[in-house]
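Aim 2 progress update. The chain analyzed this quarter is reproduced below.
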Amino acid sequence: MKCERCNGLVMAVSFVGGDDMCGAWEYDGLKCLNCGHITDPLLMKNRKVLVQGVAGHQPTPGLVARLDPQGSNAALGSR
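Predicted structure tokens:
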């Protein structure tokens, strides 16, 4: 397979992490040997859903984005 970013060689990798306190996790994915880009089946599924237009941005009820008076940073406030 080829990397979606750089067209480099991609290989299958098992990723493992976490610890006993938080719980360990493991998943299989693909990693580009050239640029290091990582993707996995869940990312590919979610991208496919977005391209098909099934999922969209769902705003949280009761929250609005506002500009703060000091600059252009968005702050969340309630309606």
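The two ends are 48 Å apart (CA to CA). The mean pLDDT is 75. These observations will guide the mutagenesis experiments scheduled for the next reporting period.
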